[in-house]
Amino acid sequence: MRHTIIDASQFELTEKVVAIKRVTKVVKGGRNFRFTALVVVGDGNGHVGAGLGKAAEIPEAIRKGKEDATKNLVSVALDENNSITHDFLGKFGSSTVLLKKAPEGTGVIAGGPARSVCELAGIKNIRTKSLGSNNKQNVVLATIAGLSHLKTPEEVARNRGKSIDEVMA
Questions:
Q1: Is the pLDDT of residue 37 over 50?
Q2: What is the pTM of this model?
Q3: Chain CA centroid to CA 3, Å
């Protein structure tokens, strides 16, 4: 995964809770309940991140998840019609998410966890398919891993030492 530190204070971030899990621990006096919240944050303009928060109360878990997500923001390369620049497979654990470029007017065609990530990243036209494990946490992280590895045609041309026209042909 390509890690670029992004200062979250310069973005107007929106958050979305993807999953809340209740975890029970049986102890001598009864049961202890704790909550885990999977939160995705994004600015709707090419920056998105996911985080996990754990606490005894749900609101506190969500707050911690949001904090964690803002620390893990990644940049997404978008093209002129608010889609991704090329097709890519994002992998995390046993989850694989296929990200396909889509023309204007397609909309976001994605399952729950991947849809949250795409919408908060500001992607308006994309097709995705979740392959392998459908664990929500791994699907979210696989989607973010795939989006963070996307490259613009300019980046590819610079890396290959060619002009953009040669790369696009």
A1: yes
A2: 0.90
A3: 13
Q: Is the distance from CB of 19 to CB of 116 less than 8 angstroms?
A: no
Q: Classify the C-alpha dihedral 72-78-81-83 as positive or negative.
A: negative
Cα gap 168→27, rounded to integer Å: 62
Q: State which amino acid sits at residue 74.
A: V
Q: What are the pLDDT digits (tens) for 90-99?
A: 999 999 999 9
How far is the C-alpha of 46 from the C-alpha of 42, rounded, in Å?
8
Share of the chain above pLDDT 90, in %: 73
Instruction: Report yes or no: 18 and 36 within 8 Å, Cβ to Cβ.
Output: no
Structure tokens at 25: 């621990």
Question: What one-letter code names the amino acid at 7?
Answer: D
Any idea what DSSP says for residue 78? B
136-148 helix and 112-121 helix, angle to the nearest 10 degrees: 40
Q: How confident is the model at residue 167 (pLDDT cuts 50, 70, 90)?
A: confident
